[in-house]
Amino acid sequence: MSELRDLYQEVILDHNKNPRNFGFLNPHTHSADGHNPLCGDQIQVQLDVSSTGIIEAIRFTGAGCAISTASASIMTESLQGLSVAEAQDLLSQFQLLVTDSSQSPDPQLGKLAVLAGVRDYPMRIKCATLPWHTFQAALMGEIEASTE
Amino acid sequence: MSAIANNAVRKIRDDFPILSKPMNGHRLAFLDSAASAQKPQVVIDAERECYESYYANIHRGVYALSQRSTQAYEAVRGVVKRFINAADEREIVFVRGATEAINLVAQSFVRPTLGPGDEVLITGMEHHANIVPWQMITEATGAKLVVVPVNDDGTLDVDAYRERLNSRTRFVSFVHVSNTLGTVNPAEEMIALAKERSIPVMLDGAQSAPHMPVDIQALGADFYCFSGHKTYGPSGVGVLWGRLELLEAMPPYQGGGDMIRTVSFEKTEYAEPPQRFEAGTPNIAGVIGMGAGLEYLENVGMAEVAAHEQTLLSYATAQLEALPELSIVGTAPHKTGVISFVMENAHPHDIGTILDMDGVAVRTGHHCTQPLMERFGVPATARASFGVYTEQEDIDALVSSLKRVRKMFA
Fold first, then answer.
1. Is the peptide bond before B251 cis (omega within 30 degrees of 0)?
2. Is the pLDDT score of B68 beyond 90?
3. Residue A40 is nearest to which of B353, B357, B380, comparing CB atoms?
4. A1, A2, A5, A8: which to substitute to probe chain B, counting the most B Cβ within 10 Å?
5. pLDDT per residue over A43-57, tens digit each?
6. What is the pTM of this model?
């Protein structure tokens, strides 16, 4: 198993302590609630998607562990300004990042790569993916996302 | 260490092979016995001995192996009878665990007595296993599930309990010791209050049987249950104890082989208890292993086990209270060795992962008590819980690792 500092990197601790884009987004075009019944983590994601399909703004609220909070915070930074198609692509890249240790992180992931450490902690992967599941549920017009 | 001298504890730890295995490069500090206890060598040996030397299906064969298996299996009823001071071996039903025991009582004993407007009384500190079975039968019958509130310190509001017992109360089921808070409920007093109104009572003993002497006749309950895996035995086995006259009047919970007297397509006659409630081939070696676990506890002495855990509880409580930004959830004056806590800047799951890297195993989450988490306004807690093998060194490892957590999330 890797060193703990690979999981709790400074960037993660910083985003946990000072989450970016934290708060309710109004008005918004999409929103969803995410829930991890295993640990009780709750997250709400709101998006404002323009008529041309660009994510103009994205914010989140909720309460969770450092991994899910940092993941949500970095996610909002990474998705802002992307087209829906680009965002879907990034989502797939992120899924690979946190589950597939055979590959080195795609450069496109940027800061998201700090979350690669959860690969070595199977019980914690869902913490990192919950914000992304919730984002996807919001895009798809679903009201709720769950890690179950 | 007053009750069990330090060198004696050292010997107890040596009885558990897993505790000598390093965890993430550290000495293993296993502090999750409330979820499931580790197994002493005698339990592992008892189960292996059964499979290696005398295993066969029970109750049916006329050959020697089957007779030996049957004897070993049935002998465990005697062990359980002694362990909880039951009046009769026939009152001991082997089940899969405390969860199945509660479902059995709910379906076979309580459900037929319920109608619209009737009430089943439980408490706000129940494990989901002592909530959901009652919801299932009250919803199905139009009855009502009534809940006794929990005080801020984690004790039960006994006055509210007294007020909620009424002429519509058909059954009371409550936890002897809270798995999340460690609170020991005043079971004898609560059972007596229900008995004044002739209301039958089930006591969930999943967290009392492993940690304190239990005299089921003195407690006065009608049903009691516990899980073998928490009393240092294998998982997948447990005990339902019920008063013989009640068990005799109850219909079976499941139908199948080994629970009948005669079967024809027109009519089946059921066997007497406990066989009536043990349909199908049971966990034979598991029951035998559970017996070995209970005998192990008897040899240590349940009074000594309780005293040892009290010493650790006082020590650990003082150590944890001294940590800034840490609050203990559940501060009842009468507790077992269970400490749930939260930290200001660190989520329980982060605490759990960091402690694990230091070889310290604690439970994190809602501990199957979501309504209780809501009562205390926390989504989850971290929980350290003790067992017969827990040492002061385990607590010290916990405290030192928690200091690391604090530093990291400062």
1. no
2. yes
3. B380
4. A8
5. 999 999 999 999 999
6. 0.93
- Kindly list the catalytic residues of B: 368
**Which A residues 82-111 touch B at CB under 8 Å?**
none
At B187-231, the pLDDT tens digits run: 999 999 999 999 999 999 999 999 999 999 999 999 999 999 999
pLDDT at B1: 44
For A39, the closest of B24, B345, B349 (CB atoms) is: B349
Query: Is the pLDDT reported for residue A30 higher than 50?
Result: yes
State the pLDDT at residue A106: 78
Tokens of B403: 């200091």
Helix (H) or strand (E) holding B64, with range, is helix B64-84
Q: Could you tell me the two tokens for B225?
A: 């249950």
Domains of chain B: 6-37+301-408 (3.90.1150.10), 45-299 (3.40.640.10)
Task: State whether A64 and B366 contact (CB < 8 Å).
Answer: no
User: Which domains are delineated in chain A?
Assistant: 4-140 (3.90.1010.10)
Integer CA distances (angstroms), B303 to B7, B85, B214, in order: 18, 14, 10
Tokens of B39: 């197994």
Q: What is the ipTM of this complex?
A: 0.87
| Nearest to A119, CA basis, from A89, A103, A97 | A97
- Hey, is the C-beta of A8 within 8 angstroms of any chain B C-beta? yes
Quote the pLDDT of residue A5.
Answer: 67
- Provide, as residue numbers in chain A, all residues whose Cβ is less than 8 Å from the Cβ of B364: 39
